[in-house]
Specification:
By secondary structure, the protein is of the alpha/beta class. About 25% of the residues lie in helices and about 20% in strands. The strands form three sheets. A six-stranded parallel β-sheet has the order 3-2-1-9-10-11, sandwiched between helices. A hairpin with a 2-residue loop joins strand 5 and strand 6. Helix 6 packs parallel to helix 9. The longest helix has 15 residues.
């Protein structure tokens, strides 16, 4: 039996833009309107957890109103022919809702929370305390259980470790083809992942804008939005 080609996808907020979710940087990005230091750092959580909860409650509520787009759907469809592994910086659930079965979230998930005092294991937080809450809001004073404190978003705040990083690097190191889609590759350590691709691995990037990552020699840049870019990528395979 022939083994399927392994396509590893590194996705970012741009893949969800056509679903109506904001990207983070450039032209009306989320971080142009909200300060990272107010909502997405451990310090912000300590200082004003109510504000942080409100920010993520709003984003969770918005997520309930949007749908996956054709870029998510094409990736899910590709599983019929390829071994597709998605590593996403996105905290939305649009890859899963489109039907992709192998999705590793680097920066957490909007639909999940955990108690702020759940113990940290060497490789990150203990997953047994992570709860799926769907799209509902979390309020100040809401605890994870009798011995647990306030529920916090299951989001990797700036300055926190990225628990799935090693797993992601191992996946990238097995890629036959690496596809980078909808990410400015400005946030580390996620942006360093493509260095783990093995020699001979074809690297494609879908982004309507130029970026330093797209200019790296050997990277095939499909300069278009994710939906059209994905259709083009499939033709090139
Ligand atoms: N299709 C494809 N790409 C698009 C589209 C689109 N329709 N619209 C915009 N883009 C591209 C932009 O040109 C940009 O290169 O998507 C990229 C989005 O980049 P960022 O806004 O920096 O988002 P991302 O790379 O996902 O951010 C990484 O930063 O703060 C965070 O934790 C957050 O996971 C996030 C991380």
């Amino acid at each position: 039996m022939q083994t399927q080609k392994k396509i590893v996808v590194l996705s970012g907020s741009g893949i969800s833009a056509e679903s109506g979710i904001s990207t983070f940087r450039g032209g009306d990005g989320l971080w142009d309107n909200v300060r990272i230091e107010d909502v997405c750092t451990a310090e912000a959580w300590r200082r004003n957890p109510g504000r942080v909860l409100e920010f993520y409650n709003d984003r969770r509520a918005q997520l309930a109103t949007v749908d996956p787009n054709d870029a998510h759907r094409i990736l899910a469809e590709m599983e019929k022919e390829y071994d597709v592994r998605i590593i996403t910086q996105n905290v939305d659930d649009l890859h899963e809702r489109a039907g992709s079965t192998s999705v590793l979230h680097l920066h957490g998930e909007l639909t999940k929370v955990r108690p702020e005092n759940c113990c940290c294991e060497e490789d990150g937080f203990s997953l047994k305390y992570v709860q799926d809450i769907g799209y509902r809001p979390v309020s100040l004073g809401e605890c994870g259980g009798p011995r647990h404190r306030q529920l916090r978003p299951h989001i990797v705040f700036f300055g926190e470790a990225v628990p799935n990083l090693e797993k992601a690097a191992a996946i990238v190191s097995q890629a036959d083809i690496l596809l980078i889609v909808g990410t400015s590759m400005q946030v580390y350590p996620a942006a360093s992942l493509y260095h783990y691709s093995p020699e001979g691995c074809g690297i494609y990037m879908i982004d309507p804008e130029d970026s330093p990552a797209a200019a790296v020699s050997g990277v095939h840049h499909i300069k278009d939005v994710a939906t059209r870019g994905m259709a083009e990528f499939v033709k090139l395979l």
